[in-house]
Each structure stands twice: as structure tokens, then as C-alpha cells.
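user: can you give me the structure for this one chain? C-alpha cells are fine.
assistant: on it. calling the predictor now.
[tool input]
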Amino acid sequence: MTFRARHLLGIEHLAPDEIASILDLADTYSVLNRSETKHSDALRGLTQVNMFFEASTRTQASFEIAGKRLGADVMNMHMEASSVKKGETLIDTAMTLNAMHPDLLVVRHPHSGAASLLSQKVHCAVLNAGDGRHEHPTQALLDALTIRHSKGRLHRLTVAICGDVAHSRVARSNIHLLGKMENRVRLVGPPTLMPSHAADWGVEVYDTMEEGLKDADVVMMLRLQKERMDGAFIPSEREYFHRYGLDAEKLAYAKPDAIVMHPGPMNRGVEIDGNIADDINRSVIQDQVEMGVAVRMAAMDLLARNLKIVRASEEVLV
């Protein structure tokens, strides 16, 4: 498998063959996760530390499950009760972690670039579990695996990413990944929730669902990131759902076999109608959750392999 990265900080700097390697390995882990024996020894003897500076349910749980199924010793640091709350800097935290000799560090942080900064200060592999508005690479990878399973391919598809693009790191990672895999990407949302430079990303930009969803293969809804909003970006949730919330009428603009996605957590009746979210013939939202564990297992496995190579070469030099 081709995977050269020492850290997984974003999709932007991954090559298409590296993305394919993660997804191919994740395929094998998705099979393992459905078997009676769900464990591997790929990370046996290694220590995984999860540092979540922002609240998370799906991402943190799936990283923890992924590490344990691979045989790692997993520690969840409770950042709300850590020394960070007492004034310790991120670099000081990194130096403290270094002294514990972890092998894999999973980080979610409200500030863009935090995971990259940590990767420069620690002697282990760093996985970005979401940093500010920057990227959320494993979410894009699990979305890609879900699309590949549902559509049978991950290229030359029309994908509409709809909603709060301005505040979404999920959107940014998906734009990078889908573009690298030769897909047609559309961004759909109100001008107040669309970055002014979005058209420079090699995507199409629409402000109506009718235009944006026309003949789409994949409809990816985004959560309204209220915690990142400073001011009024929408008139009301009711008005937002009327114009941009996904319901049967708007979904009819897409292809008859189009799939519906959402990174979660969902605001039913705001971003998506509950009947659409639960439609087993169109919605792959639960598949996304399942693929999340497999993708994170694959990413940590590949990073651990590279870490062992780096450490072996350093020992030779010594």
C-alpha cells in the first residue's frame, strides 16, 4: 500500500494513491468489524492518546473503538479538567505528552492549525480529528468510503455539499478529497454561509437547492455550526429549512438513485427532514457512522507502520 505521510493532518496534501490506500485497507477493516471476532493486533504494544478540546460523540467514540480493536492501549484525556484550563499552553501540553512516550495522538481543537503545531512538537504520529474551520480528514475519508460502497465508485460523480459551508471543516476536507478523485463538486447554500472565495476552490457555487441538486449523485447536508457563528447568518431556522433544508420536494431535483449524507449530529427539521434522514433507500447516514470506525482503524494502522519505519531508521543512525 502507498501511504507516505507521518501524520494525518488534512486531505489537502494527500495524493490520490494515498487516499486509495486508506480506503482499501478500511474495506478490510469494515469486513472485520462485521465479524464475530472484531480484533486485530496491528497496534499491539502501542499507546493511543485522545485529546478532545471540543465536545464530540461520534468521532471520539469511533477513535476509541478503532484503537481498542487494533490492540492499542487507549487513553482519553479529559481536557475540560486538564491543566489547559489552568493556563497551560498547547506546547507545554505537548512537552508533557512527549515525556509519556505515546505512539498515536488524536487531537480535536477549536483553533485551526492546532494539530499541525502539535505534530511539530511531539515524537509520535498525530491525527487531526478536526481543527477549527480548517479540516476534518477522517470524516472526508469515511464519507468517501461510504460513497464508494453505495455507488460502486469514487470518481466522476456529481456531489452537492449543502448548507453551512462557511463554518464547515467537513466541507473543506470533502472538497479536497472529491476534487482529487475527479468528481464534480457543487456547493449550495445562502450567500451568508458561503465563503466569498469558494469559487476559487474549483467547485460550482449555487444559492438555490433546485439548481445545486439538479441530477446530483450524492447530496451531502451540513450541520449549522451555531457555535462558530458570531451574528445572525440566517433569518430563522424555519426560513432556513424552507429554503435549504432537505425534504422530498428538494431531493426530487437529484437523480432518482442519489444518496443522502450528513456528518452528524443532525438538526432534524432544520437541515434535513426526519423522513429523509431515516429513508433506508436513500439515506446512508448510519453507514457513515459504521465506516468511521473502519477508516480510523486504517489510518492509525498505516501511520503506525510509518512510525515504526522512522523509529527504526533513527535507531540505525544512533
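assistant: here you go. Strands lie at 47-52, 73-77, 104-109, 125-131, 158-162, 184-188, 204-206, 218-221, 259-261. The CA atoms of residues 303 and 309 lie 10 Å apart.
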